[in-house]
Amino acid sequence: MADDDEDDSMLVREALAESQLPIKLHIVKNGEELMDYLYNRGHYIDTNSAPFPGLILLDLNMPKKDGLEALKEIKTDAQLRRIPVIVLTTSGAREDIYYTYDLGANSFIVKPMTFTLLVEVMKTIGKYWFEIVELPLGTAGGRDGQQPHQSSFS
Predict the structure, then answer these.
(1) Each residue of 26-45: pLDDT tens digit?
(2) Cβ atoms of residues 53 and 153 within 8 Å
(3) Is residue 143 part of a domain?
(4) For the chain, how many structural domains are there in total?
């Protein structure tokens, strides 16, 4: 998850725990940290503490490198573009929705206003991306003949 709002990050972590999904959440604070995480640079050089994500939850409004810049970089990189990216943001602006899909976002979700709704969103995201869809190996629902034991959000 890339989000600079610590309260939102904490709520998503709690919602995932409440939903009882076997997902490990890794949080970065901005687009630059997200790219460092994805390329295993700087603080994220250890792939054990920064595993390749099966899915990215991406806020749009972040310092240093915003979500749109990070999304564009991810979706133009041959090694990263298959990672599903869900934009999870407070913006419901039509131009943000269209632009993120134009850049290759897989989903656009306006952050729910209540914790109960956030839990439901996390359950739905988990079920859809980790149980229902078929994706290439190394991504959220990608299978190699074995069911993944634990998936990873970044």
Answers:
(1) 999 999 999 999 999 999 99
(2) yes
(3) no
(4) 1
> What is the CATH number for 41?
3.40.50.2300
Q: Please, are residues 69 and 2 in contact by the beta-carbon 8 Å criterion?
A: no
Identify whether 81 is part of a domain: yes
68 occurs within a structural domain: yes
Spatial separation of the C-alpha atoms in residues 56 and 34, rounded to whole Å = 9
Please write the tens of the pLDDT for every residue from 111-139: 998 888 988 888 888 888 888 888 776 55
Domain that holds residue 55: 6-133+148-153
- Gap between the Cα atoms of 101 and 119, Å rounded: 24
Give me 126's structure tokens. 């988990």
Q: Which residue has the tokens 């240093």?
A: 64
Is 26:12 a contact under the CB 8 Å cutoff?
Answer: no
